[in-house]
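>> received
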Amino acid sequence: MTESVDVVLIGGGIMSATLGTLLHELQPDWKIVAFERLSDVAEESSNAWNNAGTGHSALCELNYTPRGEDRLLDSSKAININEQFQLSRELWSSWVKRGILDGPQTFINSTPHMTFVRGENDVQYLRERYALLKDEPLFAGMEYSEDSRVINQWAPLLMQKRRKGEPFAATRSVAGTDVDFGALTRQLFDHLRESGVDVRTNTEVRKLKRDKDGSWRVKYRRTIGRAPGDIKARFVFVGAGGWALKLLQGSGIPEIRGYGCFPIGGQWLKTSDPKIVAQHKAKVYSQAPVGAPPMSVPHLDTRVVDGESSLLFGPFATFSPKFLKNGGMLDIVTQVRPHNLGSMLKVAFTNFDLITYLVSELLKTPKKKVATLRQFMPTAADGDWELLQAGQRAQVMRDGKLQFGTEIVAAEDGSIAGLLGASPGASTAPPIMLQLLKQCFPSEYAGWEPRLRELVPTLGAKLNDDRETADMAMSATAAALDLTA
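>> returned
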């Protein structure tokens, strides 16, 4: 007889971990099963070395404040992403207090967020961005300087042996963070296991089929021994990174029509030399090269993984047809359907800058990659840095355009939902999953809301519209998460 459960989670990353923990808090009587095809959770995009670890709050990411057709900068996306990250902090704070998560410093650390630009055009852009954001409540305390002595105090590695006469500028927000999403994911899954949730690793979901009663039959296969199996679920969440597209296509839901994915990989330069690491405590972002996707914005980052500090620079784009780091070589081909082929071809023909950028990145030798780092850090030496393969991102294509962000794709009846896209991704997992709860469980959500407000007191509020509330919320989560400026 086929096993029946309330919820199946596909994928052992931060999204499934967040949704599973929320559902267990709200409905402890529901039976939840999670599937992960690899030998452990948090081994793909949630793994600390596969992502930037930036608590994306738009403090330093320039692509969140684009110029409009009127040439003025637009702050709406930056404010929205900051709002979402504050909600993430609130939920993590609640889970720390409840003992669901370990001590805050096991997964989140205070790390200033900086932007550093060179050249008159980018300096002018950064001046305008600072003027636009400095008085917004969620961006309070942002600093701006074109003075080499000040920037040297903020991040000495940026200024040592820098060429004189070169225009440059920087902003700094001491409220920034570094997040080990691998540790965060593992802790949430550990809690779920201890609470009776069945987490099955080395198990690959092969097919999703809707039964006549509206439930979903999830067919899977063990990756060790190849034993097949199936399970029935009232609700299925597909949080499998780039694999989500293929599973949702196979489910037959009409909402996935028109979607495609373009895979982009990456590499980091990494150093753990304590003498170098000690001179830099910040995440420093700059402008993306022409044609580069937002996830390829260059940055020199302090990382704290498993309690040890290092520096990463990159990412350098790579290309693989795989939708996951541990995916298949035919992924980019097997996604093609009559309903998305035209859109995908249009993306190929209208994104020549992206193709040019990717080719130029692929031609870079390790020495050329260190030379790129020297634009940030003039004293960088080849022997101090090693190349590290980052994660694989499946960028969403739809309506003939590459879309940047993270998008919920759900059936009309809410019985199945999946997540497509990339950055800001993990940083905004809590608000994305809260939105999914509201969208997929409309009849239950009203009853859940009081409990959700206990976990996230500012749920539904626009923090940036109320300075006093914003200050109180940020101060409370900073204290709970031990984030000291």
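>> The first helix runs from residue 14 to 26.
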